[in-house]
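Re: weekly structure request thread

Next one in the queue (121 aa):
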Amino acid sequence: MKPTPLQLNFDTRRALMFALTAERLSAYYEHGQWMTDKQGATLAQLWLSRSKLQLGLSERRQLSELSDEFARTLAGSLSREAGLYTAHEMTESLDPNYASALAHDLLEECTRRLHEAGVTE
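Done, posted below.
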């Protein structure tokens, strides 16, 4: 019998949105292209499956869309140099031993955006 995957709480959804935003920004600055929502949802599933976590396709797509909106907002409001720095800080902050005031502020923005989208649990 296969064990039941664990479900996500709000903090994990927020961390996933943050990580997807970081990945989108990095890909944009490295390759000059935006990841599609489908690619984002697939990437989210890959990350979740490594931790034996599960999230339905519609919720993965929602997080993918929210991360896309956030990444594009950031890229549109920053110079290329500032955008590269932001993407780097976000990526580095995925390591729990790395502290960044900028990443903390961006994580709080993820919280705000999730609440606005009605994601609470």
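The chain has a mean pLDDT of 91. The chain has one domain: 6-116.
Next request, please.
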